[in-house]
Predict the structure.
Amino acid sequence: MIPAPEALERLRAGNRRFVADARRRDASAGQARRAEVADGQEPFAIILGCADSRVPAEIVFDQGLGDLFVIRVAGNIVAPSQIGSVEFAAERYHTRLVVVLGHSRCGAVLATLEELQRPTERQSRNLRSIVDRVRPSVEALLQTKLRHDEEALVREAVRANVRVSAGQLRHGSDVLEQLIQEQGLVVVGAEYSLETGVVDFFDGV
Ligand SMILES: [Zn+2]
């Protein structure tokens, strides 16, 4: 079992390699590694990230097969199946670090802002279920002076959405709450910059 602080340091180091264009090419995803993990896994971090094609967790953290337990969904929202997936990995594999990974210019956050500013009837019920989960985090921001500054509004909305998801994981599950209190499980929030490639761990660290 890898303690949360060590897991976090591994992610930071991997992201530094990614940003420096110094990723460990094939070793972590080669045949030898595949054989090593075929019989079992011990992922050192659970990542709840956005489905955006530009933010694949394994690449931006420079990790290989068996390293990360990754859950991806548009807007890195927390619905019951996401909580269940985190519970599963934390209990079964004793993974002690959970990262909610949002990113700059997130399409799901932008769609929610759009919907709040100019409601439409056309949205499908399924897409609406995602927007509805992002909505509470951004609604409050529209009441502030941020609404006059589109760029700042999106930036803050992305972070607010990450904070809410991290909070829901910390407090929305008896299983996770117990692991946090008794087993050293840590939930942190982070934002990936599409522009620089840097992951900023800004919540819960
Ligand atoms: Zn996104």
